[in-house]
Amino acid sequence: MNNMNNYEQFDGYLPGSQEAELNSLLDELGRQDRASAPAGLEAGVLDAVGRAMAPMPITIRQPAPRRFPAIARFAVAAAILCAASVSVVMMRPSAPLPAGNPGPGNMLAVSLEADVESLLALDEIEHDLEQSVAAWSLRAQAVDADLNSGWVALDLMDSSVDQNGAL
Amino acid sequence: MIPALTMQPPRPTEQPESLGALIASAAKGDEQAWVDLVGLYAKRVFAMARSRLHDEELAEEITQSVFVTVATKLNGNEGYAEMGRFEPWLFRITMNRVRDMCRKRTRHASPTAPEHFARLEGTDDESLEERDSQAGQIGRLRSVLEQLSERDREIIELRHHGQLSFKQIAELLDQPVGTLLARHHRALRKMRTLIEEAS
Q1: Diameter of chain B by CA atoms?
Q2: Cross-chain Cβ contact A22/B192 below 8 Å
Q3: Domain of residue B69, CATH code
């Protein structure tokens, strides 16, 4: 009997006679439960084991398309917004300086403005000078041309007079 | 102290060297080794699960799951760390699976049909002769087994369905063998008392 063998197997003990019959019945119960296994049990188990031990199919993982993370998109949007705001502020006509005692910041702005105006005035003067020079130069050229043409005419007249007079 | 036990000569070791070789071959993926291993243990694992769950399909499913776990462990990187203790290891996996399934069933429990217990006890249309036959006795035994505590029942099932030795059960349950023998004996006495009360 399996049960007896198991007792023997360990340390040689056997259950008492009162429990021996129950032991045999339990052995029979176990035997019946083992025998109730379906015919395809072992095949099913081997199939499952085969699937578990089969090497995993090699899969080539395609790299996921790289997308800007949300935070980068927000950063780009914020940068564009800042740039647009700065350009709008810069393109706005400057407001007149407040009257009264200007502060140190305003003083600097006023002096810078005065410098810029001086430079622009100098540039205008230079431009006027160049224009005057050019005008005078043109005028001189015209006078020169008039004079030359007059002398030519006189010369011709003189010669004709001489010829006519000679005739 | 364990009463009414008599001395018998010890039996040779329960795990022959050939089993170690068989497991080693199975770990390498040897098909014949797996056929042998499954042939040796599948029905014992099935019987353990069936006794507790009373459901052949579920028991078959658990048997497959247990062997898949064994195959994964033997084949995997972690390897088989239970050298020389394959059977306790195999049945510990089985026991855990059965316990998990019992817990799941308890969570989704539905009332058991009265005819189920009647069938177990052999009290429906069976004649008195049948009740006295071994089939009737086995039926009553099943019913009595249901009334044992889970721990006692595990010992009985590991012993009689799983066919493990007391030494192996002691290893599996991490208990001294003497304690285990006493508990087995107590479980048998309790079963006998329950049968007597029922009759």
Answers
A1: 58
A2: yes
A3: 1.10.1740.10
